[in-house]
Design goal:
The complex is a heterotrimer. Chain B is an alpha/beta fold. In chain B, 36% of the residues lie in helices and 17% in strands. Chain B is globular and about 60 Å long. Chain C has a two-stranded antiparallel sheet with strand order 1-2. The longest helix of chain C is centred in the middle third of the chain and has 35 residues. Classes of the chains: A mainly alpha, B alpha/beta, C mainly alpha. The interface between B and C is large, with 59 and 53 residues.
Chain lengths: 286, 399, 299
């Protein structure tokens, strides 16, 4: 596209403004992480990595981290299975209520988290009579992670026509063999992208978790919630945030590459760029 | 091929709404079980057994601190899991989940917990240190119901008026600095008050002194006229309020960052700010820490859950927290009057109990402990506002 | 003879194969098997829980014990209607959510367009990572960073002080600012994906027909990207609509729908449930409109 000089400059300014807006608060957090500051001081005290070692050694942080990982993996696994099943049904079959499925799976993310949280909490404790625990947290997380996997997979399935699967059946493959040798390989990268997103969603989730977690347990966001305003703990909180951001570079890049390849192949087929929306299922943090 | 696909979006929405309504009717028909045993209480523990290895507590900030938790864990083998709560509502919400063994409840929570069947009676014979609790804390309407003990007193205190000495001069002696519209306007946006319907009682305490024609006696028992006056006062205060706080630690941070200059607060925040060398002050000891009108306050009680999974550890905790040395530690750390009379021998400041009027019932007449507002005014009439009215009014006040 | 022998000794089909054959060609059976899990989960666990919560809107409550009195009543709706504060809160929340959506759309467009059409492959990859990284720095930490920045002694006040303007402090402006900040990545990504899908040939055609870049933007790119914007808006709108933590931390006493629900959950769950119907109804309508505008293809 030919852009006039003025348009190009304006565009670059727009990009700069947005990036600055996004990163100024993060830079502040990083400064606090490296100075251990709790209130504003100017000039800031000297930089140190002391708090990084404190954070890594802190038992509560480590436990919370592993709890978050466990919950994230379990919720993602459930979401993968359920999301894939739902998208297969919707993309490859016609049935009464088909349109409703897309609508239904997006509800947990679209409705306020406090409503989902309280509803689930009440059901668990009052109707089912079970205690709140990591299990109930996982159920809550899986519920809103389903849509993330569903959207990714169904977008992929829609772009891959059903004719491959028909051909496979014509050649004598059973339903299961068709899935295993034809459908699944094409879905794979969409599954990984969806899984990464679902995991990210679960990892940062606070509101539904607040209502569904049991006594004495903490995911990382819950730990932050409990320690955010404690002056002695605040530096550790900032460090945790900085570490999370840095570590996240890898999965984000991975997801982008995975779906980018698909887009590259499609572009090679000619015509406009029809790249797969990357991690386009914006993840919600109910 | 199966039937035609339903492409109509409105039909989609209606089908979801319809299934929701169907479910709702199912539950309305009584499928859902009630969580509360409404009034029927679990029995009290008859005998103390072995500790279960764990105890889950809900508490006010500053009540469960490592200094006395670690020795407790070592001595009893009960690991303490605790959760800070900022308001009585939060405490009740947590207790209703049945996840916690005990709670340090104030008077605006105790009646509700008892009535809701969320707490069990306490067998005070199993708590040896109960014997030497100050007499004026025993058998009180906020911890004893129908003659049955429901908790072990922890300590008591008054809500404080705190200000930044650099910004607020001269030192205020009255709540009017934040409740009188003209005075409060001077600190517009810099005032911080407690985010809880119970704060309406603070306005009532103020009006009791400044508008005797209203005839307010107990700030928690307000008829229509008295209640409206208190609510209107708070509505006039709202434009000047910068923050309604429910997290004690957040209020500390707000004062440090210069967002707040004068506030209704607790001792916990005051001492934390002083420890950080912040320029804050509260109504001095010479005035009994209480401004001229008096103040609301609290007398807290440790209660045990009716669904407690670790009752033995909970009893051990209750005995521990009111043992003389520990209760002295707690009282000095937080800045409240201890419940344990023998604690006065163990405070590091020998005059602590005197300063805090620990055993002086007359002093506490100016402090109106938090209590649950109920319709029954207690003097024959039952036209007082109940807690639902208070909650609705609070939403109204904040706008 | 040989054929008959061959048939008679045909290999037995395994259990797995038999099961697969059962499903072969039977669309309804496949659908039923596939949907049993997800639909069962969504309907029983999610809709069921929602129903339990919402049915309480028609009940009363004992203010002391919190016990629900299960006799049908419309008192809660009467309270919501009669007291204007609930209308004010609902309208304030919806207004802010719309404003946040608009703000994010404006902020997202330049960078999304740059990534989709102008930047090189490598720059785009860098920008995608740059846009997504903040998502991992935890909601609470980001809001707290803004809390500090907007404080009386904070950086916003000191910078604006240099040009003689007072910072917004805490209040609804702060909430708008912070919410716009938090959900911006959720607008950038679908928009980027949607812009990428616009064939370059269309843009070239528009230029060949004599349109300048701004006209092309207005009459070709914007309409084509609109469904993607709507897709992103689902998140910016719904996340703002339901948030109660940000108003609590930087709102200075401002009440949003989520705050009112939160304050009533313990003492008056029926009222909280009744009020919860407001954001649910708003979002269902919003989703229907969004779907009509084609946003669901861009999620």
């Amino acid at each position: 596209m030919r852009l006039s000089r003025r348009a190009r400059i304006l565009l670059r300014i727009g990009v700069g403004v947005t990036l600055a807006f996004i990163y100024i608060p993060l830079i502040m957090i990083a400064i606090y992480a490296f100075t251990g500051g709790t209130t504003l001081e100017w000039p800031p005290p000297s930089l140190t990595t002391h708090w990084f070692s404190v954070a890594v050694k802190d038992h509560a942080v480590r436990d919370a981290f592993w709890t978050s990982i466990k919950v994230g993996l379990a919720a993602t696994a459930i979401a993968l299975v359920l999301g894939t099943c739902a998208s297969l049904a919707v993309a490859r079959h016609r049935f009464f209520g088909r349109e409703a499925v897309s609508f239904l799976v997006v509800l947990p993310i679209a409705l306020p988290g406090i409503i989902t949280g309280v509803a689930l909490s009440d059901s668990f404790t009052q109707v089912l009579g079970i205690s709140l625990s990591l299990f109930t947290v996982i159920v809550g997380h899986a519920t809103f992670c389903i849509v993330v996997v569903y959207n990714n997979v169904i977008a992929r399935l829609r772009r891959m026509s059903g004719s491959f699967e028909e051909a496979s059946a014509d050649l004598g493959a059973s339903t299961w063999q068709t899935f295993r040798y034809v459908t699944f390989p094409t879905m794979q990268t969409a599954l990984v992208a969806g899984a990464l997103l679902a995991f990210a969603l679960s990892f940062d989730e606070i509101i539904v978790t607040l209502f569904t977690i049991g006594a004495g347990q903490e995911t990382l966001p819950i730990w932050i919630f409990n320690n955010l305003f404690r002056p002695t703990q605040l530096p550790i909180v900032n460090v945790v945030a900085v570490l999370a951001v840095l570590i996240s570079i890898i999965p984000i890049y991975l997801a982008h590459r995975l779906t980018r390849e698909e887009g590259g192949a499609a572009a090679a087929r000619g015509g406009g760029v029809r790249a797969e929306p990357v991690v386009a299922e914006a993840t919600a943090m109910p | 091929m199966s039937g035609k696909s339903s492409g109509n979006p409105a039909r989609v929405a209606w089908s979801i709404v319809a299934s929701l309504v169907a479910f709702m009717m199912l539950f309305a028909a009584g499928c859902g079980s009630s969580s509360n045993n409404g009034g029927s209480t679990a029995g009290e523990l008859k005998k103390l057994g072995k500790g279960e290895g764990q105890v889950n507590l809900v508490e006010w900030p500053g009540y469960v601190e490592p200094q006395w938790v670690k020795p407790f864990e070592k001595q009893t083998g009960c690991k303490v899991n605790n959760k800070d709560a900022g308001t009585s509502d939060e405490m009740i919400q947590l207790m209703r989940t049945g996840q916690y063994d005990g709670v340090s409840a104030s008077g605006n929570a105790t009646a509700r917990l008892v009535d809701g069947g969320d707490v069990a009676p306490v067998n005070v014979d199993l708590v040896p240190n109960y014997k030497t609790i100050f007499p004026d804390l025993k058998n009180q309407p906020y911890n004893t119901f129908d003659g049955v003990h429901y908790g072990i007193p922890h300590g008591r205190g008054a809500n404080l008026l705190m200000w930044n000495v650099n910004d607020v001069k001269p030192a205020p002696k009255s709540w009017s600095i934040i409740l009188d519209p003209k005075e409060a306007a001077k600190y517009k946006g810099k005032i911080s008050v407690y985010d809880d319907p119970i704060y309406i009682a603070d306005a009532a305490v103020y009006l009791k002194a400044h508008d005797p024609s209203l005839g307010i006696d107990n700030p928690y028992e307000l008829n229509d006229k008295q209640f409206s006056a208190a609510v209107n006062l708070l509505k006039e205060q709202k434009p000047n309020v910068g923050e309604y706080w429910s997290s004690a630690t957040k209020q500390i941070s707000s004062f440090s960052n210069g967002n707040d200059q004068v506030a209704a607060t607790w001792q916990y925040q005051y001492f934390a700010l002083k420890a950080d060398n912040q320029p804050v002050a509260v109504t001095p000891e010479s005035q009994g820490f209480v401004p001229s009108e008096g103040a609301t306050g609290w007398s807290d009680t440790w209660m045990i859950s009716s669904k407690a999974k670790h009752p033995n550890c909970m009893y051990k905790w209750m005995d521990w927290i009111v043992s003389p040395k520990v209760n002295a530690q707690v009282a000095e750390f937080f800045g409240e009057a201890p419940a344990q009379s023998k604690a006065c021998n163990f405070t590091s400041d020998k005059n602590f109990c005197d300063k805090y009027h620990a055993g002086v019932p007359a002093f506490w007449k100016r402090v109106y402990y938090w209590q649950t507002p109920v319709a029954d005014c207690g003097n024959g009439s039952s036209d007082c506002k109940d807690y639902n009215d208070w909650v609705n009014a609070w939403t109204d006040i904040k706008g | 003879m040989e054929a008959a022998d061959a048939l008679a000794s045909a290999p037995k089909r395994s259990v797995g194969r038999r099961l697969a054959d059962l499903f072969h060609g039977r669309s309804r059976l496949q659908v039923a098997a596939l949907l049993a899990g997800p639909l069962g989960w969504m309907v029983i666990i999610y809709l069921g829980s929602l129903a339990i919560l919402l049915v309480a809107a028609f009940w009363g409550v004992d203010p002391l014990s919190g016990e629900l009195t299960k006799s049908l009543t419309t008192d809660n709706f009467k309270t919501l209607w009669n007291d204007s504060v609930y209308r004010d809160v609902a309208w304030r929340t919806i207004r802010t959510a719309a404003l946040v959506t608009l703000t994010d759309a404006v902020l997202a467009f330049p960078i999304a367009f740059y990534m989709a059409k102008v930047a090189s492959r490598r720059t785009t990859a860098v920008l995608v990572v740059a846009v997504l990284m903040p998502l991992w720095s935890f909601y609470l930490v980001k809001v707290y960073a803004w809390d500090i920045m907007l404080s009386a002694n904070g950086i916003v006040n000191s910078v604006l002080g240099h040009i003689g303007v007072n910072g917004p402090g805490f209040g609804i402006t702060a909430v708008w600012l912070v919410e716009s900040y938090l959900w911006l990545p959720f607008m950038i990504l679908p928009l980027y994906a949607g812009l990428e899908r616009i064939p370059n040939s269309m843009i070239s055609a528009s230029e060949d027909l004599g349109a300048g870049p701004f006209t092309t933007f207005r009459r070709v790119i914007l309409p084509l990207a609109f469904p993607a914007v709507v897709a992103g808006s689902i998140f910016t709108f719904s996340l703002t609509l339901g948030d109660f933590i940000t108003p609590q931390l930087v709102g200075g006493g401002t009440q949003f729908i989520g705050n009112v629900i939160f304050s009533n959950i313990t003492n008056n769950q029926p009222l909280a449930s009744a009020f919860a119907m407001v954001p649910i109804a708003v979002m269902i309508v919003y989703l229907l409109i969004a779907r009509r505008l084609g946003a669901f293809e861009h999620l």
